[in-house]
Design goal:
The chain has 453 residues and is mainly α. 64% of the residues lie in helices and 7% in strands. It has helices at 20-51, 56-65, 68-77, 84-103, 126-146, 153-156, 158-182, 195-201, 214-242, 246-264, 266-269, 273-276, 282-296, 298-305, 312-342, 377-380, 386-397, 409-433, 435-443, and strands spanning 107-110, 121-124, 208-209, 212-213, 347-348, 351-352, 355-361, 367-373. The strands form four sheets. A two-stranded antiparallel ribbon has the order 1-2. A two-stranded antiparallel sheet has the order 3-4. Strand 5 (347-348) and strand 6 (351-352) form a beta hairpin. It is globular and about 60 Å long.
């Protein structure tokens, strides 16, 4: 979660070497279809929540009632293009986020060495940026309320925001593509030979502009920070409409605890597959700029118009189970971080860690070594860390009840995404570590769920 898969649309960079029919599908037809489908999807999500009482069946009925093309056109007819107010909100926040990314202090953090032998360097100020942003939002909300206004204008004009962000991301990705061709930030860049696929997948792994890392901005300072802001805004809108509703607040509180955990651990996120493999193109940039805002927030968006009263006992049980999931998720990540920091010489669950020191070769010919952990949660299954993520997303969705499928869209998406990712991760590691990975799989035979998968 987090951005752990938060920008996945289904086609990866490993496909750039394919030729023939599959190459055409994966590098041309697939990206075209996804770039047409994805903006429609977030608008449909908004329209379902706001105009269809949260019901996908009602959405489908309205589309089919007038024919698919006319029905889709009518939905887009309800969408308003960005007004000066919306432009001010979006670009005002972007400038604020860039300012914090640039000026707030943070320790030096390094990402994993790239295939070209580069080591990305970051300023680990994500948690501080997050705290300052939430505090600023609280102060701004107080000020606006004192003057008869509210930040819930974001909810009221959410369609404008989604469309404006989509148009911005198209221009932004085109500029990144041009930069990668002519002004790359490192040797980790290149072209697939297909202009369309280069736009979709990106031309640089770690682009920087004026010294600021682009993926840190899109993934963390925008995507993963806008998500909690929208969560708070939708919660406030619910309060303005209905007063205190325990389902909304249980869901929002669990999400806010998760976001806090994410930013506390942000340096670790910079070593995940989102950052290590995915280039900065439409695939990840539109995903973080628009998909997170329009899709990941679907539970909170739904609950604005569909309040559910849980009762204190049910609310407390759901909240507790969500907290347990977060705690396990944090402990899993911490075990991996402890292994890296101690070079494999630490205790896991009270015993010396069992590891495999896997050697591999960079594309430059340089020899390197990584540590594969076989103790603790990482000995339960190779990708067990995805299990508490799935459970957490379910628990913060559960307060919405079972009247409609829409609030469970993110849970379903995340399950498909993470299941697919287990195969993608294994394939990447198998190619990188070869026989060392085979030995690791013998010691840890299950992908994600022990005894099942």
């Amino acid at each position: 979660m987090g951005t752990s898969g938060l920008c996945r649309l289904g086609l990866g960079g490993e496909m750039t070497g394919q030729s023939g029919l599959m190459g055409t599908i994966n590098r041309t037809l697939g990206p075209i279809m996804l770039m047409i489908y994805s903006p429609n999807m977030v608008i449909f999500m908004w329209y379902t929540a706001v105009h269809c009482d949260g019901s996908y069946s009602e959405l489908v009925r309205r589309i089919l009632e007038k024919g698919v093309l006319r029905g889709v056109a009518d939905i887009w007819g309800n969408v308003t293009l960005g007004s000066p107010v919306v432009l001010g909100i979006i670009f005002g926040y972007m400038l604020f986020a860039l300012f914090l990314q640039a000026v707030l202090p943070g320790k030096r953090a390094e990402g994993p060495v790239t295939p070209k032998g580069n080591v990305p360097v970051y300023k680990d100020n994500g948690f501080l940026c997050y705290i300052v942003t939430i505090a600023t939002f609280a102060g701004l909300t107080y000020y606006l309320k004192q003057h008869g206004m509210s930040p819930t204008i974001v909810y009221d004009r959410f369609d404008e925001i989604l469309v404006t962000l989509t148009l911005f991301s198209l221009v932004f990705c085109a500029l990144l593509q041009f930069k990668g061709y002519f002004f790359p930030s490192s040797s980790d860049h290149g072209s697939s030979g297909n202009l369309l696929f280069d736009f979709y997948w990106g031309t640089e792994l770690y682009p920087r502009v004026f010294g600021l890392d682009v993926k840190v901005f899109t993934n963390c300072r925008f995507g993963m920070t806008v998500w909690p802001l929208l969560c708070l805004i939708f919660g406030l809108k619910s309060y303005e409409l209905h007063g205190f509703v325990d389902s909304m607040w249980v869901s929002c509180l669990l999400q806010m605890v998760y976001f806090t955990k994410f930013f506390w651990w942000e340096a670790g996120y910079m070593s995940t597959i989102d950052i290590m493999v995915d280039r900065a193109g439409y695939y990840i940039c539109w995903g973080c700029l628009v998909y997170i805002a329009g899709f990941y927030t679907s539970v909170s968006l739904y609950l604005v118009n569909k309040p559910v009263q849980l009762g204190s006992t049910v609310a407390a049980i759901i909240f507790l189970l969500g907290l347990i999931s977060i705690a396990i998720n944090f402990h899993v990540d911490k075990q991996k971080q402890d292994i890296r920091e101690s070079n494999g010489k630490c205790l896991i669950w009270g015993r010396p860690a069992k590891v495999i020191r896997a050697k591999y070769t960079l594309s430059t010919g340089e020899k390197r070594e990584s540590i594969l952990l076989m103790s603790g949660w990482w000995g339960v299954a190779r990708h067990f860390h995805y299990v508490p993520e799935l459970l957490l997303s379910f628990f913060w969705t559960l307060p919405a009840g079972f009247e409609n499928l829409m609030p469970y869209s993110y849970v379903i998406f995340l399950f498909i995404l993470l299941t697919h990712r287990t195969y993608r991760d294994d394939d990447k590691c198998s190619k990188k570590y070869t026989t060392f990975w085979d030995a690791y799989c013998k010691q840890v035979p299950f992908k994600m769920i022990p005894g099942i998968f």
